[in-house]
Amino acid sequence: CDNGKRIWNQVEDSTQNSVDLSVEMAHHCPSGRLIVWDENNQPIENDSSSASVGIIEDVANDLSGPYALWGGIPLKSANGEYYEVRNRQTICRCGQSSNKPFCDGTHASMRFQDGLPKQPKSDGKVF
Ligand code: FES
Q1: Domain assignment present for 33
Q2: What are the pLDDT digits (tens) for 30-58?
Q3: What is the pTM of this model?
């Protein structure tokens, strides 16, 4: 979710540049945890992706990441209940998340490697 300018610092700054950057970063958040709300407390989604599943690879940092679900794919828990449906979700693939089934970023600190060949896209990630 972070382009190196720390979104948490950006939202504290009310300049138009920081607002624009925060909105852009939130709309690219693969987990869907960052959401932009309008002045009427309605979420603003710019993602109309069709249902699809992929994997996230951080080639720049030589890390493997979570599964990525796009397009409002329903996710059912082991006890049969459904989680809130979101347009973007990331599901733990390393097995170490403290918030399973969701990725909590632990894969980065453990330097998770899936062993699959990496083919970077222009943004340095493989989906
Ligand atoms: S893949 Fe991110 S915590 Fe497991």
Answers
A1: yes
A2: 887 788 888 888 877 766 678 999 999 88
A3: 0.75
